[in-house]
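Researcher: Here's the sequence for the chain we discussed earlier.
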Amino acid sequence: MLMHFHGNMKEFLILIRWQNLLIVILTMVMMRYFVIEPLLSGIDVTLISSPGEAVPMALQLPWYDFIILVAATVFITAGGYVINDYFDIKTDLLNRGKVIVGTRIPRRQAMMWHNIFNILGVAAGFYISWKAGYIWMGILFLLVSGLLYFYSVSYKRQFIIGNILVAILTAIVPLLVILYEWPALYRFYTVNTAESPVLGFLFYWVGSFALFAFLTTLSREIIKDIEDFEGDMAYGRNTIPVVIGIPASRVVAVSLIIVTLSMLYLVWHFFINDKITLIYLSSVIVLPLLFVIYLVAIGRNKKQLHAASNIMKLIMLAGILYSAVVKAIITWNLL
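Model: Thanks. This is the structure I predict for it:
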């Protein structure tokens, strides 16, 4: 009985892509505590209650509300993975030779999990939006859960729409942290300070992480489509490689990576311009990206493309971990 449960648990964790969910949690926690909090602490404000005394700004969204925000995001994401596998049985069998839904986990059970995750995610999303003072923001969670469903049913079979949708949804994850922190900050500091501090720069910082997430995800999605060409072709999916061919798709993926590389150095040059960031970017993000370009350009078999896709995942993780560098630079004033 225990063995059976253990086996089922393992299959269930694979179904909901537990590693990806951990990355979602890591992204949100690091955005809050490694980017937004240190940046805020660098701004001194004078509270009305203690005039003449400057105090550093602090996070205003309670940590327990932040946990609910993270949970809402994780539930919606997990629901998306389940429904994706549910509708992908045939192509996954052809591309990967194995599936979980329909073999290890019955289809009805998968659908039940999808519904549970979405109900929990949307409910938590509306709750946290209500707490933030903008209940209508909960519609975002409803919208995303709907988009993930339609992505699995139809968008992913359409030319480029599916790829862009996945990239946008990935980019939303870091943005959610600032979207829900902002109203709390604004409310507290407009009431309690003599003059409201300008906080727009927080959006630029988090927005940069979001843009990096968007570009790297889009590149990775195209690389995965090249890898899955056979199954997608067989089942009449209009993915980029099926529509424009594999050589042209390689060009698109490589071009996107080159755009990413250029933007990294441009942002560094114009906005950050410190040695630590330059070393981190060049060694941990740029070098691996150049290797991905090499693999995509010369990759003649699935193994090389699969390696490129996995390296892209690590690069995305390295992008998130840059927030630890940000925190170190700000905390120890290393600029």
